[in-house]
Design goal:
Number of helices: 16
Strand order of the largest sheet: 1-5-4-2-3-6
Radius of gyration: 22 Å
Mean pLDDT: 93
CATH architecture of the largest domain: 3-Layer(aba) Sandwich
Low-confidence stretches: none
CATH class of the largest domain: Alpha Beta
Number of domains: 3
Distance between the termini: 30 Å
Structural class: alpha/beta
Strand content: 15-25%
Largest sheet: 6 strands, mixed
Helix content: 25-40%
CATH topology of the largest domain: Alpha-D-Glucose-1,6-Bisphosphate, Chain A, domain 3
């Protein structure tokens, strides 16, 4: 395989100008065309929708891919400007496209970028399909353009955003948002931190249109995300946490670099961890919106949802460490919790949408007429507080792979110190990229390998704060072994 091209579950990410060179981008575009025409050698029409975020060279990469695949007989709808990933995914489904391509590095540091593949259903391409594209990569392009036999096709410049926003009106009860803001007793004041990412002022514009006093911090796309990693976690949200308290806001919303994931800060400036956010969303969709369907629980989701789903009679499917594409497409889904603030909704998209998630929290507060801190306390009373935390440890690729293999090959004294355990492994191309260790409900540890960042991220849930800390400590011990 070409050096610098290493596919993940649904695309390719790497360092700009080192991995993502023009030559490598052309090779990936060539493989993509071969895949598309391999699915149907003589299609009546193949159309691809292409979007890009505000990272350095994202627009140029998107234009290069559009030019290459259009020369090979693929009709292209190219975004007219910077858009979040869920806007591109919705554009794929709304326009009936065969395929989607989003140029984004997601929540990676600004030195990175990537190319995400989207299926016709408006979500990440399956791991099997991504592997097929990867198998078509060559060391160099050896055949001329025009694989389809139909010659060059057109590139249409499209604004995907208006249709997406119009679709949100079928999901969010704008009348409740307006009624809430019209009551002088209510405080319709919300802060949004777009982190200099693709979310821009989309949430602000929608809420202001409903009469709320919404304001966006860092709403202008900036290629370096104002010198922080665009991941909506507490370490990156000091400005939002501080300003929520200073301006007496109801809560704060943070969307990550590509607008796919979302973090929430309550009225006292406290970040809701991913587990608290999940329970609040599930409660809102079930109780206030009365939506039906199954809950897709990823390995990263608190086991508290097992109690909630049973209490509310919500069917639950545990997808483990898979990306959930097959399960989402195979049944009616209420909510999919994919970890790290990523949520997808069965009535919307098979893709994480941080814009919609933020709006759901505005709708939740407008329905409940209670501050988020009080809603969180109510859920904790019913199901207990989720004791969850994360940690990171630098670990280069060879050592990380060795550690993962050692832990899977035999019993671990460190893991066994907390009792009898079960283990689930996640593999990509024969390499282990994640391990989940379980000691029972609400007692688990995940070791998530992030090879691009030379890091292993630890996720832990415990039955108490002390239990959670003990589990994290055991994980750190495992990583200290060489």
């Amino acid at each position: 395989m070409r050096k610098g091209i290493a596919f993940g579950q649904s695309g390719w990410q790497g360092r700009l100008d080192e991995d993502l060179t023009e030559e490598n981008i052309l090779l990936v575009a060539d493989a993509l065309v071969r895949y598309l025409f391999g699915q149907d050698p003589s299609p009546a029409k193949i159309t691809a929708a292409i979007g890009f975020d505000g990272r350095a060279k994202s627009r140029e990469i998107a234009s290069l891919i559009a030019k290459t695949i259009s020369e090979n007989g693929v009709d292209v709808l190219l975004s007219s400007g910077i858009i979040p990933t869920p806007v591109l995914s919705f554009g794929v489904t709304f326009n009936g496209c065969t395929f989607g391509i989003m140029v984004t590095g997601g929540d990676l540091p600004p030195e990175y970028n990537g190319i995400e593949f989207k299926g016709a259903y408006g979500g990440p391409l399956s791991s099997d399909a991504t592997a097929q594209i990867e198998s078509l990569l060559r060391d160099k392009i050896r055949e001329p353009a025009g694989l389809s036999g139909h010659g060059r096709k057109e590139i249409a410049i499209v604004d995907f955003l208006p249709r997406y926003v119009a679709h949100l009106e079928s999901l969010i009860d704008f009348s409740i948002l307006r009624s809430f803001s019209e009551n002088p007793k209510n405080n319709g004041n919300v802060l949004i931190d777009s982190m200099g990412g693709a979310g821009q002022t989309i949430i602000e514009d929608i809420l202001v249109g409903c009469g709320w006093r919404a304001q966006t911090l860092f709403g202008t796309p900036e290629s370096r995300f104002f010198d922080r990693r665009p991941e909506s976690v507490p370490a990156n949200l000091d400005a939002l946490k501080y300003n929520v308290k200073v301006v007496d806001a109801l809560f704060g919303i943070a969307t990550d670099g590509d607008g796919g994931r979302c973090g929430i800060v309550d009225e006292i400036g406290m970040w809701l961890n991913a587990q608290e956010t999940t329970l609040a969303l599930l409660w809102h969709l079930h109780k206030n919106k009365q939506w039906k369907g199954q809950f897709l629980k990823s390995a990263y989701t608190t086991d508290k949802v097992l109690r909630a789903a049973d209490n509310w009679n919500i069917p639950l499917l545990d997808i483990g460490m898979r990306n959930g594409v097959g399960e989402f497409r195979g049944g009616k889904t209420l909510l999919g919790s994919l970890g790290s603030g990523g949520y997808c909704y069965g009535r919307h998209l098979l893709d994480c949408d941080g814009i919609l998630t933020g709006l759901f929290f505005a709708e939740l507060v407008a329905n409940e007429l209670k501050p988020l801190d009080e809603i969180k306390s109510q859920l904790e009373t019913s199901f207990g507080p989720p004791h969850y935390s994360t940690a990171e440890k630098p670990c280069d690729l060879p050592i990380a792979r060795r550690l993962m293999r050692i832990l899977t090959d035999g019993p671990s004294q460190h893991l066994g110190s907390l009792g009898k355990y079960q283990m689930e492994a996640s593999e990509t191309r024969g390499a282990i990229n994640g391990l989940k260790v379980r000691w029972g409900d609400c007692r688990w540890l995940i070791l998530q390998h992030l090879p691009l960042l030379s890091t292993i991220r630890l996720h832990a849930e415990g039955e108490s704060g002390a239990d959670m800390s003990a589990i994290l400590e055991v994980g750190q011990r495992c990583l200290s072994f060489r």
